Amino acid sequence: MKLMGRMGLLAVAGRALNAVVSVIVFSFLDLLDAVLCFVYKIADFAVDREWKACYCSISSSGDIFARGGRGPGRGRGGRSNVLRLCPATNCLHLDSISDTLHFRPYLVSDLASIIFKKYAAHNVPTQAILEIPSRKTKHRAAPRWSDCDCHTCNSWSTCGESQSQNLYVRAEGNLLKAEEDVVFIHGFISSSGFWTETVFEEFSEAARSKYRLLAVDLLGFGRSPKPDESLYTMTEHVEMIERSVLRQHGVRRFHIVAHSLGSVLALALAARHPDSVISLTLLAPPYFPGGEGDGGQAVMRRVAPRRVWPPMAFAASMACWYEHVSRTICLVICRQHRLWNYIFRLLTLNRIRTFLIEGFMCHTHNAAWHTLHNVICGNTEKMDRDLDALRDQLKCHVTIFHGENDELVPVECSYAVQSKVPRAHLKVLRGKDHITMVVGRQNTFAAELEQIWKNAKGD
């Protein structure tokens, strides 16, 4: 009993220490982000000859502010919308963007608001207007100065118009007369290599002769286009998958395998094609129900609790809360990914997996920042609707995998999905986390996928 009491006291003391240290560290990061905001404005103006606004410095006048003519009008609501031209159909769409882009309460900024009366919760933008680009508009010949300009990251901006508007898709298996197609969608800060360099290598010859395997690099990641003017909303991501995978490759009836962020897009894709999806396999879906009326703030607090421990929570908080700190990280890591690739291969005697570099480093800050907020933090209501459609309208087989030790997306998320879709089969993997649920057990996982597709009977 005494030992249990001491363990309880140590646990309480540990949580208290974590809370105290977290306040100190994140207060410093608040100040650092404010300083970096000024530094990047000067650098952007000096190099690109453009005074670029950011989400932490929206003017109080309510005028148009962002890059490329984007300008949220300010109002009293908690929603933001963007009027955008769909590149696939040349039609206008009113799309929602996350409130977490514009309102992220900090200790330092809250104190500043009292002094300067500059920031206020009711000044969250509610409407955005996007300039409609001309049909003759071409992609920029070069990326922003802080983004990589190598062939992998930027070749799309100088190639033909028809190529530049499509995502990168890796196709394997039966490419001529496949019986069924399988679409693989990777997670946040990843690429198609997460699939092609793991489970693709483990599929049996029977599976490779029956299925066409299509792994896509999402917009802004891997070898896909990384347009600086994009807001990377869920609609943009899904429409680009439809254009680059379904239409480009003539996909009619298909299975979906999706990891983490990809699960959100997979649900939306399935809801838009209810008669085409044969089976849906979700790995660690980031579904955080509840918090109604709190917009994406509740989700952001769950995903990024601003704590220094565990390390995954600290990394998520850095990426989610600090626009300019995360841009600095991308400047150091993503812009120099060729150098890091060389160093890692040298240190590991050329044994490092390519997808570790391509996935974690081949993206832009603009893509990661907007995707994190607009797809993960700002889409609980859309996920609710898509899950309702999956339960009531779709008849496809649903399987969920989740690592028991996942610190980024807790296993409760998958239980919540199963509660919304009771027919879904949930498999919790003992001792596995967000990545090792696939990497390290790819042979077993490939066999599990083959069994799922076989049981689905896509007749």
TrEMBL record:
Official protein name in the record: AB hydrolase-1 domain-containing protein
Pfam families tied to this protein: Abhydrolase_1 (PF00561)
SUPFAM superfamilies: alpha/beta-Hydrolases (SSF53474)
Origin superkingdom: Eukaryota
Organism classification: Eukaryota, Viridiplantae, Streptophyta, Embryophyta, Tracheophyta
Domain AB hydrolase-1: residue ranges: 182-437
